[in-house]
# Entry
Amino acid sequence: MKPSYFKTSMVLIMASACLLYMQSCKPKTAESAATGDASKSYVAPGKYDEFYNIVSGGFNGQVSVYGIPSGRLFRIIPVFSQSPESGYGFSEETKPMLNTSHGFVPWDDQHHIALSETKGEHDGRWAFANANNTPRLARIDLTNFRTAEILEIPNSAGNHASPFITENSEYVVAATRFSVPLDDQNGDVPINSYKENFKGSISFVSVDPKSGEMNIAFQIRTPGVNFDLSRAGKGKSHGWFFFSCYNSEKANTLLEVNASQRDKDFVMAVNWKKAEEYLKAGKAKKQSVKYAHNVYDEKTHTATSTMRNEVLVLDPADCPDMLYLIPCPKSPHGTDVDPTGEYIVASGKLAASIPVFSYTKIQKAIADKAFDGEYDGIPVIKYEAALHGEVAKPGLGPLHTEFDGKGNGYTSMFVSSEIVKWRISDLQVLDRVPTYYSIGHLSIPGGPTAKPHGKYMIAYNKITKDRYLPTGPELTQSAQLYDISGEKMKLLLDFPTTGEPHYAEAIPASMLMDKQRKIYKIEENAHPYASKGEGMTKVERKGNQVHVWMTAIRSHLTPDNIEGVKLGDEVYFHVTNLEQDWDVPHGFAIKGANNAEILIMPGETQTLKWVADRVGIFPFYCTDFCSALHQEMSGYLRVSPVNSNVALLFSTGTNKPAVSGTDAAGATEKAPGTK
# Structure
């Protein structure tokens, strides 16, 4: 056994033992678990939370919205995953949102959130979300909490270091977790040729300041490392990005050992202002790629998917002074920038300290050429030349750091299951609190901005164990709320979360409440199949397609009787919600639908495709409880054989029950209400 392998293995064994120890030392009573004033998390009936907390969904591919301090779940926003609740990804209008160069991909692994900023502060316009598996970026409109746009990222595999945003939302960045052969190259190469053929990439996605529309402005080709996380500079460091990266060994197998050989990996410092100069100077090369750009139109209530085929790529070999590497111990995960923009905090998962770098020292080191050689042609800044100092003995398994705006950093410790508070100026540990258990990310409202709201902190824990009622082999995901307004951190609340939350950003509720869209004006509905009144409803046949222009209003559907559909027909129900009242959506479903319901907001049109797979009568109905007569909000569709001569008929309220003929027993029946 190699000494390096043994050394690394012993580190991992010791870390695992510590984790088991921490989990065994669980609180014996509720009183010992909650060290603070739990009443601070109470929000009285009819009162509002102070913050919206926008939380990643991990493997569920969605984004959740919680209130802080209550921990109440308000909304699950479908982004990269289909949603049978709303019909997202099932309706004809939203299917294009999940289109990619690989085809229709109705799921993803959603890790991180970034809220739009102006002058380094949250501005309440958009939330951005990453898709890790099939590399994508999404933009969520915070006026309606809906996914407005999804952009696929080429030259990427594992879009983990994403999305991270500049202080005026000039760019959202996305760096590849897994280095791979680039899209315009032959990817059919031996895996063990990693060092020769595998490359990384960083994508700079521009954001239109008015519409929010995203476009890949340029990409930077990088050495074949694994990018983990990132933060943009702010204030004095505006114009720079800082990326943690590991696997500087360029290993392609058993990474837990082979990518942990070096004492230090890197933080990559990217001068994106310099990159813009090179772009303007024509240094970028056009590269043929294939990626999807999906946009939802609020006027037509319909998404479109456009396939793009080109990106501009900058090569560091042609662009000196654009990239620099800073050594960082060991296997770094998080890279975070303090509110002033002066200090860059890196967290080595296997390190015994937390290195804090100084932007001023980094710039001096570059000017003085205080380099320790190169790595794949990129200058490596001497560790001591960039270092502000190290937080000594903070805990085991440092991952992420957020800031309270009072000169303090808060770092999550995965292995020792705790959060450590430390002072940035002198790097002294001030406080530590346990988490239950194995914390990943933590979040302070406004924590990544220039002006954090240093009142609350939320821990997102990977293991729940004894904190909630058991639910079989898998327990609920867990978050914990801490009061950080005083010198000591105090646990206030446990609350369960959906999916596997990784990161979250919280924004004052006052910034969003008054911006919320309440209805879609019916007169502005530009959907090609919209029915702006019941008089516009109709049913038309186009070959084997039957299109139904339908309206929904409390408490009936128009039309509610449809005949003349034939076996094998594709029926498109274009349902317009005529309501113009806040919080009165209508749903629509039909028996035998093999997709989902659709949920239609007031003034909106959505389409459900249904295939007539057998002869008979099929009820359809409203799925969203909307009135006292919700149960009566239904209708019938008749399917006849292919060779039948049943005319295409539709009606509401006029197809009265007919007098029945003689039943099987020979008796004559009359329709109800007849004499």
Q: What stands out?
A: The CA atoms of residues 97 and 426 lie 49 Å apart. The chain has seven helices and 45 strands.
